[in-house]
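ingest -> validate -> predict -> emit
validate: passed (alphabet ok, no gaps, 171 aa)
predict: started
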Amino acid sequence: MAKLDPVLSRGQSAASGAFPVLGEALIHVTWDASPDLEQFLGFITAYTKGRFSNSLAERVTLASTELLDNAVRYGSLARDFSYCLAMQTTQVSVSVRNATMPARIEMLVAQLRRLEAAPGQVYTSELERSMGSASGRRSMLGLARIRHEAEMQIGVDVDVNEVTVRAQCKR
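emit:
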């Protein structure tokens, strides 16, 4: 697992080249294997509670949890993936980059279009769908939670088989 230093890199991932960072990178980690998400998210929670208001810390933690969960669940762990928490003067962003299959990227882009058009409706339908699922499958509920519960904007950058999903909000 990567070291948990507050700033590991400023916009560069040693293993994967450039990583788009909006503002000052507070935390930037790249993994080459499946990380211990529970430990890392504990670190994120403690870090954000010490730096941000309770409300913002909860929003950043929710976005971090959902984006990392999606990267592990839907990404290709055969390739590196990265996490970045960055801050601008008026905004905070959480970004996760990972490799995945083109079909999953298409599903992600379609889901984000649905979220932009009707965030509340998509949130409600995904929540109902996950509650009615015998397997507990939460297909796309995480993105809807980020958009609806955390009230963060979500964007995506696609570069061939790599996708960067970014959630951002005002500080």
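The chain is about 45% helix and 25% strand.
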